[in-house]
Amino acid sequence: MSLSSQRSLIQVARDLLKRDSAEFIGWHGTNSMTAEFWKKQGWIAKPSAQLSVFEYLGFSRLSSGRLTSGADEQLGPGLYITDYRYAAMIFANNNAKINPGTEPRVCGIFARSSQAWRRYTKKVLIPNSLVKDSSDAATKQKHEAERLSWIQRILPGHPSNSVVRISPIAPDVKSYEGNQLLLPGSIATRFYAVCVDGKPTSTVTPVGVTSLNYMSPSLWRDWGVYHR
To answer: In whole numbers, what is the pLDDT of the chain averaged over residues?
Structure first.
């Protein structure tokens, strides 16, 4: 390891040892079983298929009132969160319907360390042309390969599968509101969830939640989001 790399690692360690706080980064809609699982685990661990069906799909089919067969991973595999609570609420209620015996939960997703999130977690704004998915396995794989190749070009030397990805929800459909953010599974231990009642009538909000807009230039600056 070069001397400059050693110094960089030492600086990272020093920064993380300083007083730091968590930071709210978005909403996720789920069911009560997954919410309890996350609470026990202490991080957003991926639940088993038996525990939560369709947990790791995106938001692109919300208006249909149902979850689909997998053509929803517009940004690739990982946990999808949104800056729009209403979108998470719809997803939570759909999720609970598909998982019998559960209740809807809307979860605030928090980065354990605001400093690590802002300074050391790589994030990119995915071009609209790469925000797509397919229920066909071969086509799905092709779309993901295109995204990984693009990320490698703009962030050379950084593992593409650990980069946070941001985009509008279904950018080609004007009726959709809100934006989405993909947290790769490889960095999931850095985040935790605070979940509350997800019914449409609920007004309970986790402590620490703030207003977000993933398409805001000021957020890109504060979070260090690569964008063109």
So the answer is: 85
